[in-house]
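Key idea: predict the complex, not the pieces.
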Amino acid sequence: MALLDVSDLSVVFQRRGEPPFTAVDGVSFSVEPGQTVGLVGESGCGKSVTSLAIMGLLPRRGAVVTGSVRFEGAELLSLSARQMRDRRGRDLGMVFQDPLSSLNPVIAIGLQVTEVLERHRGMPRRQAMVEAADLLDKVGIPDPRRRLDEYPHQLSGGMRQRALIAMALACRPRLLIADEPTTALDVTIQAQILALLAELVRDTGTALIMITHDLGVVAGLCDEVNVLYGGRVVERARRHELFRRPRHPYTHGLLASIPRLDAPRGERLVPIRGSVADNIPWDHGCAFAPRCPNALGTCVEVTPQMDEEDGRLLRCHNPVQENQEVPA
Amino acid sequence: MTSVSPATQKSAADTGVLVAVDDLKVHFPIRRGLILDRTVGYVYAVDGVDLDIRRGETYGLVGESGCGKSTLGRAMLRLVEPTGGRVVFDGVDLSATHGEALRRMRRRMQMVFQDPLSSLDPRQSVESILVEGLRAHGLDRGREATGRRLRELLSAVGLPSTALRKYPHEFSGGQRQRIGIARALTVDPDLVVADEPVSALDVSVQAQVINLLADLQQEFGLTYLVIAHDLAVVRHISDRVGVMYLGGIVEEAGSDELYVQPLHPYTRALLSAVPVPDPVLEDRRERILLTGDLPSPAAPPAGCRFHTRCPWRQPKRCDTERPRLREVAPGHRVACHWAEDIRDGRISPHEVRPELVEEESALVPDTALTGPASVTEVLGP
Ligand SMILES: Nc1ncnc2c1ncn2[C@@H]1O[C@H](COP(=O)(O)OP(=O)(O)OP(=O)(O)O)[C@@H](O)[C@H]1O
Ligand SMILES: Nc1ncnc2c1ncn2[C@@H]1O[C@H](COP(=O)(O)OP(=O)(O)OP(=O)(O)O)[C@@H](O)[C@H]1O
Ligand code: SF4
Ligand SMILES: [Mg+2]
Ligand SMILES: [Mg+2]
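Result:
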């Protein structure tokens, strides 16, 4: 049985005076224990809303969540707010892009970590303090004992992100969701944090959902990758297959438009035309069709379904062919 | 398309240096005290930078947050007053230029910003945004000529002429960046300083703007200084790249040379840290993981500024003597005492014990914080 099974998950936002907005549109994927699964896509494609829905962190009012999210077979969407909070303390951990917004600014780091340990693992204060210092040490915070007494603003961005990871780890989650955990950080610090996450997965067997817009991060870290566009998964494959042979025109287009560090200077990029503002609604056809170089007449008339083909999933009427040029 | 300013208009023989920066320094005072406003220290944002930008080339400036890239760019245009050093633009020493003469020089240097929305006035139509620049420099030559010119500019940046009557919020991020670029071009500049021109854009749109910048350079014979934190982007568009660390340039080389043979330990770490969208390569790569954080630019380490994090650091000299930026191979400058020894493998990297860096609120300036580093910012007003 999968550790997490997300099936046909949809999130519709309803604001008064505005038409309902479907941010996540029938997303399905699953995560095995110890596996790292990537969700990639551009701004607004529904990555964060998907993770918030899994964690039960969307506002109960104004957001309609349908479908199913099963953790070891048990449905999470039908849990009460209280039961869900308990789950978050026990099985599910989350790390956000902006650690400052998820750390309490007026409580010392040490206390924030020990509180988690006391509440969710029932440790007495004294033992929790020792364990907290241990956790800070494990995530690579130098001089952890002293750091326990410091406040979030006294730490650098990279250290704050480590503190947040330590807090998420405090309850020994079996699934960690990291939503752009390194986007706000410098690239040398990003490398440290990514190495830390990879090590955690390897050493503790925690499963990881990695949310990012950076295909480079995915290439190094994820076992399996879901590419999202306009609230739907358009392609899913194992990491080597996806990058060796991107089949969806969107995935293919993304890879062709990124300047690669190792590419010789001046090689011209092949951009995707237009922007997400040009999308058409999924129920009219393929949302990507107006930007797609492969689009056919059917693409604006018939919604493409998810098809399986040699172990990968693909939502496209006219996928990229083997001989179609793939960027080096 | 008729070009606004054919490259041929600019002397074809001009291959020399357009901008020469000489020991440029920008130190921001840190003030404390309510009654007696006293200076308690300085942020050494730019601290002794030498570089030349050649006519028609793209010079890329890369480095991590807070290393002084934007300040350097702004100081070159005299948008901030340098504390020391000189900027010579096309033979004219800008630090000795004032008033009308400076204003005339400024026309020739334009800036494109990271966030197109915040740099465009939301209440102004695109037309009035573009005309403004022309007027400011007395280049508005009557309705018809100006109208023609604006349409030419828009078409050069790939926008329809109907865009003139619209407002910034009616455009996508990529289109807004096109407007920002068109605005810079209205006054027919020689140098365009682009500060993070694509970092606010979606990946799929970044490439459009990167290609556009390349096309415009060809068409108008522009010289670029491109500032970005993304080394892959910088390498892609630049002929030469300067790598900055804590207010100084640590390495400068041709774009390909920098990738093939990085010599400064910091450049090596930076290159090894950039993720590449290729799992085969990612699995094989050796990462040089730096330990510890970037020291504060208000208290830069003595000696080599990188010595607190450097895996190649050697005793004594690195801690006490600041290495000069010196030419190690033709066109390849490095500020490291051991560049040749590192290149030839005579010294090898070792482990570094992370040094603690305090986010000392006493040393953070009151204005223009680049990251949330003060209590007030954390707690909000
Ligand atoms: N609380 C909300 N109310 C209404 N709409 C929302 C809300 N939260 C998100 N959205 C919308 O849902 C869509 C998906 O948002 P989401 O935050 O999941 O994007 P994302 O993929 O995480 O993007 P980014 O890379 O920018 O973080 C967006 O169009 C967003 O504007
Ligand atoms: N007007 C100012 N007053 C005081 N300090 C400033 C001012 N502008 C910048 N600084 C400081 O100077 C240093 C360099 O800032 P700068 O904006 O040049 O960095 P940067 O390399 O452009 O960083 P980023 O990648 O984050 O844009 C930072 O420590 C910043 O806080
Ligand atoms: S379904 Fe059609 S429009 Fe959509 S990506 Fe595939 S080919 Fe392009
Ligand atoms: Mg998000
Ligand atoms: Mg900057």
